[in-house]
Amino acid sequence: MKKLLSLLHVGGLVLCFSHPAFSQETNQEILNELKQLKEQIAAQQKQMQAQQTLIEKLSAKVEATRKQQSDNQSAPLKTETPKTSVAQNSTETRSFGPIKYNVAGSGFQRMLPDISVIANTSAAYYSENPSGQAEDDPEKTGFNLTEIEMAIQSIIDPYFKADIFLSFNPEGVEIEEAYATTTSLPTGLQVRAGKFKLPFGRQNQKHPHAWSFTDNPLVNTDLLGPEGGLNEVGLEISYLFPTPFFLQVQGTMSNGDNENNFNSDLRKDFLYQTRLSSSVDLSDETTLLFGASQAWGNNDTQRLTGLYGGDFLLKWKARANRSLTWQSEYMARRRDNVAGTDTDHGFYSYVDYQFLKRWHAGLRYDYLGFGSDTLEKQYRITPALTFTPTEFSLLRLQYDYNKTLNEDAVNAVFLQMQYNLGPHGAHAF
For residues 217 and 203, what is the distance between their CA atoms, to the nearest angstrom? Predict the structure, then answer.
């Protein structure tokens, strides 16, 4: 009986699905679904065609803009004043060999160099009339405009960059440095030509605004010269060795106009100078830099003068507001003259400790004249406290105790203020 009922139920279903009305309804639903799918596909195709058209228009616009920029860069410079201002945020990064720099705005703006000004002023007190000072030391008791330095720096083309530094002081204007440096020679090789501070030791290469103290070390002033030290017109060739650590050799040939040591009247006499420098990382936080320098040439008696020096710099920096710098230099001079040969020696050593984000405390010791034939024995002790509100300004309070053999000690107090305007290139570490 159950089997019979099952057969009747299945048969009924078959008859139901085979009924003409049911088949018509099913076919109509399928046709409707197919129609909807066709409409959706057609809409998607139209949307894709519209997107493709938009992409082609944007690509053509970008290509036209690139061509316009290329034409502007290659066109000759016009002296007309632009009618529209350049957007401040419009910047472009360009790369020429190993040099990368940012330029902004139009082709005219891109050809302008970076220009900056650094003013160095101080109030000073001397217990006795000062003597034997460097050109950039505070000159007298009272207020001193030590120097205003203008820097003009720029990439010339893919092969050279230029640096020009002008020094303004109450006595006039001086070209402190003006030189061009190669940027695309084979790896490790570089050439510099013009007027520049010779790489003799560390302190001689620094501008006054980069000093860690208000005045120059005694040994730099007395042995290298009070008027900027070794600062010559000439040619320098340097080579950076492909070693896992920093190792560089530098050689210069210059006119030798330094009146303190050379300045021969003979045209064939030049000043020659070499330096070998290296550095090693003692840890992730500590770096040691050291070097040896020598310079030789004829003096005003047409006899030989030789300068020799050694230096080191230990730098520790744990955090953004904690650092320690220890720098020392030793120098010797051997000068031949009509009467024989004179030899002089001197050194300095200082520590600069950053104990807070904006505060530095420094202590320097100078000693001059030991084993010397022409210089009196002299030493100086210099503590200093420096406050740097930002990287663009500086306030420094410094005291000097200066004692020369058989003379009264000279006490000096300086309050220095320094401020920067404009982008100033970084100095050597």
Answer: 8
Spatial distance between the Cα atoms of 228 and 299, rounded to a whole number of angstroms? 18
Residues 6+ apart with CB under 8 A from 231: 176, 177, 195, 196, 197, 198, 258
**Strand ranges for 16-96 from DSSP E:** 91-96
Contact assessment for residue 103 and residue 91, using Cβ atoms and an 8 Å cutoff: yes
Q: How far apart are CA 286 and CA 178, in angstroms?
A: 34
Place of tokens 């316009």: 68
Q: List helix spans (H) across 105-146.
A: 107-110
pLDDT of residue 348: 98
Q: What is the DSSP string of 177-228?
A: EEEEEESSSSTTEEEEEEEEE--STTGGGS-GGG-SSSS--HHIIIII-TTT
CA-wise closest residue to 201 among 92, 328, 286, 74: 328
Question: What mean pLDDT is predicted for residues 84-90?
Answer: 37
Q: Which amino acid is at 282?
A: L
Which has more pLDDT, 1 or 337?
A: 337
Q: Within 10 Å of residue 344's Cβ, how many Cβ atoms? A: 21
CB atoms within 10 A of CB 217: 30
Q: Within 13 Å and on the Cβ side, how many CA atoms surround 180? A: 8
The dihedral built from the CA positions of residue 121, 126, 130 and 132, taken in this order, carries a sign that is negative
Q: How high is the pLDDT of residue 79?
A: 41
Whole-model pTM? Answer: 0.72
d(CA 305, CA 271): 10
116-421 maps to which CATH number? 2.40.160.10
3-state DSSP helix/strand/coil percent for the chain, to nearest 5? 20, 50, 30
Query: Helices (H) and strands (E) in the chain — how many of each?
Result: 4, 18
Nearest to 219 by CA among 203, 231, 234, 232: 203
